[in-house]
Known about the structure:
mainly alpha, MetI-like fold, 72% helix, disordered N terminus
Amino acid sequence: MSVTQTDPPAQASSKKKKKQVMTDRAKAERSLGWRLAGPAFVVMVAVTGYPILQAIWNSFFNYRLTDPTNKKFTFLNNYIVALSDGVFWQATWVTVLITIITVAVELVLGFIIALVMHKIVIPRRSLRTIVLIPYSIITVVSAFSWFYAFRTDTGYINQWFAWLPGIDASTDWFGGFWGSILVICLSEIWKTTPFMSLLLLAGLAQVDASMEEAAEVDGATWWQRLTRVILPNMKAAIMVALLFRTLDAFRIFDNIFIMTGGANGTSSLSLLTYNQAIDRVEIGMGSALAVLLFLFVLVIAAAFVRGFKVDLTGGRN
C-alpha cells in the first residue's frame, strides 16, 4: 500500500518561509508605526525632556529663588532631607490612600455603568453623553462645587442628610482628617468615574458575544460568565483603565488645594511640591520632591505593566 506523506524538509521549509513572511510584515508595520509616531515622539521628548533634566539638576542645589546668588551644590542632600521628614511621608500616605480608595470605587462603578451602556441599545448615544457630563466639567469648578456643598454656612449636604446619625446642621466636614478625605474622594469619584466607564466600555466591546452565548448555553451563571469569559477578555482594557486612573489620582492637586489647602494633614505629594517650589520658592527642594513624585509614577506604571502581563500588541508577529 502506498501512503502519501508530507516531506518533512519541505514542511519545515514552508513553515520557515511563512515565519519569514510574517517577520517581514511585522518589520514593515513597525517601520510604519515609527514613521507615523516619530514626529510626535520627537516633539514630546523636546518639550518634556528639558524640564525633567532641569528639575533633576536643580534638585542637587540648595537654591532659593529670592536669593539666587547663594546657590550651593549639595548633591543628594535635598533627597535625604525629604525622605527623612515626616511631612513627606504623611503626604505620601495621603496620596496613596486617596489613590486606592478612588480608583477601587471608580473601577466598580465604572464597570457597572459600562455594562449598562453596553446592554442598552436605543438611547445609547444619549446615555453616553449624560454619563460624560461630570468628566467634562473643569476640575477646579467641580472642586469648588463640592467644597461649597459641604460647608456649614453655604452647603446643603447637612440639611439633606440630617436624618443620619452624627450629621446635623453644624457638622464640619473639613474640620478633621477623615471628613476632609471623604469629601475629596467623593469629588474625585464623581468627576472621573465616567472616564473609567468609557475605557471599560471599549473593553466590553472587544468581548466576543458568541463566547458569552456559548457559556450561557452550557449552563454558566451570570457570575461565571463574568469571571470566566468577560473579565479575562477585558484584561487589557482593565489594565489601561487602572493605569491611567492610578497615575492621574496619584498626582491629585486641585481638589485638595481648593477644599483644605493641605490642612488637617491632607496635603498630597503634588501639593507639597507646589508649596515648596511656588509658595516658599525653594527651587532645590521643590525640584527634589518633583523628581521623587516622578519616580513614584514610573514605579507604579512599571508595576502595572509587569503585574498584568498583558500583550497590547495582540500577539501579532
